[in-house]
Amino acid sequence: MIRPAPLSSGWATQIRGGWLAAGIGLLLLFPLSYPDAYLLDVLTTGFLLAAFAASWDVVGGIAGQVTLGHALPFGAATYACALLTRLAGWPFPLAAAAAVLLATAAGAGVGQLASPLSGPFVAVLTLALAEAAHEIAAGHAFLSGPGGYAWGGEGGIPVVLPWGDAPPIASYYAALAFLCLSTWGILRFSRSESGLVLRAVAGSPLTAQASGVPIGRFRRLAFIVGSAFAGAAGAGYAAHVGRATAGDLSLELSFQAATFAAVGGRGTVVGPVVAALALHALFQGLSLPPAARVLLYAGTLLVTLRFFPGGVAGTAREVAARLRSRDRNRGGRRRRGGEAPPGGSA
Amino acid sequence: MSPLPQVLLDGLVAGGAYALMAAGMSLILGVVKVVNLSHGAFFTLGAYVAYAMADRGIGGPVAVPLAAAIAFAFGVFLGKSFINPARSHPFALPVGTLACALLFEQAAQLAWGPHPLAVDGGAPWPGPFGVVVRRWGAVAFLASAAILGALRILLVCRPGLPLKLVAEDEEIASSVGIDVEAVRYLTFGGACAMAAAAGALLAPAGAITPTMGRGPLVLSLIVVIVAGMDSVGATFLLSIALGVLGNACAYYLSPQWSYVALLCSVALLLSARPTGIVAVPGRRD
User: Fold this and answer.
1) Which ipTM was obtained for this model?
2) In chain B, N or C: fewer CB atoms in 10 Å?
3) B261 contact partners, CB below 8 Å, separation of at least 6
4) pLDDT digits (tens, 9 = 90+) for A170-228
5) In a mutagenesis test of the B interface, which of A125, A142, A250 is the best target, namely the one with the most B β-carbons within 10 Å?
């Protein structure tokens, strides 16, 4: 059994854990302050998006398979919820469970195709599969409902919810609980034996393969786990929005997840969650047209990739570590009492 | 009257222009060693430039070079400021170039609106068997063929040597005094200019929308995966074949199915040939 090494030692972990708890506390307290209904809705959607970003991180961060089609399991789940409740008349919880299973199966299929690939070709393959699904969902009003309404196409398919219109505060707490649970689950996975092996595979596939790791199997596992969590987020989104639309499968959504991960730091799980909440609340709060919002996301991502290749959080941590080690070196030299000239070479 | 000859001819013409774009993409893949997902955006840029010029009554002969010049400028900027510094981060490139594409798509949507626009291509010439030869189509095909011929000559002649050397081995290239970085960003800019020229040439072919570049992007990806950088001729023939197929698909089914068919083929191709991509050598560690 491999034991994970503590990610960072001492006070850093403690402070970070403390801040996380404080953040959750604030989020729990927030609805009690009689906030604007719109703001509550923005945050509820933000929680689901953050869970989606965390599920991206399983594939793109921990396993290092940069996927640009992560909307596929998400949208498959929302469409499954809509179709199963509408057409088959299933109760929502059963449909949601089936949707998660479907998303997992989709992930297994994509993983099967993508596991032999590496680098940009994973991105191209996943992008192509998700775009194909998006086009099929967007372009075809493939159902006609009762009363002559055409379902599908850009308008999407409504979901039947047993509770009708849930009070916003209940949706808020449910989404927050879901986010905490799924983040915890993904963190558990990332620190499990499989998660550690996946990090090794991402770090150097050749070395991992030489040590006898079946890298194809582990990459498939990453796609399966990531897609299962994405599917759960999709089912939650279907329950919150009450409609499955082609936007749930769009390239823009996959891209958003990659942006959150890049800003928050790939492979850290908590980083993408925080980045997703912050960016979503910020950009949604600016009340811009949707096109301008995607523009802002793309701009943020480019700036991040250019100046903080390790993510904003990752770069900050690196700088902090460098500062700390410099302090330590300075202290060490002082203690040695100038035996060696600073930076002197023999 | 069977529409088939007309569909085939239009596909042939479109394929010729797509070849221009695909050749640019394979240059980028070969020399810069980057899969440029923003290539489709430059195609769209060319189409919008052609539209804006046609709106002011200025025709293709001015619009195409202008589009190419604009794209070259942006391409050099992108290559110099983003691609070159980010090349060592395998995550940054596909995601970053996709970000550029989305950035442009949204900017175009803000500037010109999401509605499809059209460029008037002039009255077609009647040809044999009831087929019409579109004026812009003839121009697009001939211009693409001429540019590709020039590229082919460049690649086998002396001035193209730095390109081939950088594609082959960057260390040797820099050791014989080639400015590798400059070759990279100039190639990137030139390839983007080719995509924009293709977009401007094909602007009268159909609706101009912010996301119109995605289909040609996927088509170029297929061509690049199969044909590689060196064989301009193969790129040309394969693009024409795909253009004809895509056009037939669009005519007999719907334009969306043509895009879906292209997407499915790239997925199939990648899963069938996971390592068979000609132009991307593995990183040497």
Assistant:
1) 0.84
2) C
3) B245, B246, B249
4) 889 999 999 999 999 999 999 898 889 988 888 888 888 888 888 889 999 999 999 99
5) A125
